Amino acid sequence: MLRIILGTTGSKFLIAVLGFLVVLLNTRYLGAEGFGTIGLIGLAITIILLFNNFIGGTALIYLASREDMFKLLVPGYVWAFIISIVFSIIIRFLRMVPSEFEFHVVLLSLIFSLAGVNLNLLLGKEKIRAFNIITVLQSGIQLISLIVLFFILHRISIISFVITLYISFLLTLLLSSISLARIIKPSDLGDIKEVIKRIFHFGSYIQVAYTLQLFNYRMSYYIIDHFLGRASVGMFHFGNQLAEGTWVIGRSIATVQYAKVSNTTDLVYARKLSLNMLKLTFLVSTVMVLGFLIIPESVFHFFGKDFGKTRIIMLSLGVGIIANACSMMFSHYFAGLGKPHFNTIASAIGLVFTLTFGFILIPRYGIIGAGFTATISYTLSMIYQFFTFFWFSGAKFKEILISRSDIDMVKKELKLLFNS
Q: What distance in Å separates the CA atoms of residue 183 and residue 126, rounded to the nearest whole number?
């Protein structure tokens, strides 16, 4: 299993590096205001994907080993088109992005929604290697496209970034469709209504939690935009992107954990696995956050004159970043066992504190207040999940400590890795 985690971590680390280079190009050549607009475009796409994922999201990972995959694929695709049509109206009414990007946001969301259905089904069948390769190629082709547009075609603009999204999303859709075609076969759709009910029942809990969590992550953007302006959104978005880079390993571990827990009926195994993943995530995330915090302030001026406050933004986010990395382990444990309502409650708790402190701290302390708001939200959500996990799983609090068996397990996994 360690080999799978390392493979997933390696792919996500490479994705993070490629994404970092994309961020670097955008910050240096588009400035804080342009990068702020990019942040709002990305947020709008993410919001549409959240609604799409009520049918086409991570519920498919859980159900892929329990249902006919073709009966999961068809409603996922149909729902993606329905959501795109609905949001073509909503996005204009709510003015989520500048008007010239509204059509692009809707179309990009549709393309990636279809690709997302494919990727979730692959992950549900534990085709983790294919999943990793496709997602790495997505990030790689986006970076290459941006370099070509900026430096060869000399098209330095926000629309160039949008074009790179088209190229990378279409590549992801193509490759994931090819991979999925190898393991899926058309079947009778006679009981499709019952399957849709099961998808929506399970998916609704997950997506309500994800939707609330997204607002925990990104509601500050709109508050900052209202009180401080678009350039401040760009500065906070950049700091947030770097800080969230510490989640690379946590997300890698959670990806493997979810696939494993979703495919087991052994509750003791699921509990022990999740506790081991939690310990590893906490240690690695803490080291990574501390590593970011010792970077001199002068280094961040390399990204542009607008980003000098990045280090202090990351300092305000530090504890929250570690808390949220640990929260991922609890979230994927509950979701993998078909109990996502606990995650919904945790996300709701976080959102309440985001809204409460966001409107208090951001007007008074600016983007630093946004960082502290996120830390409070993430930490309190994780605390709820922490106690709920021990109540639900029957685990003892002493199990949270690193034990001799944990060390022996790591040694065993490393030995298997090196032997292979």
A: 12
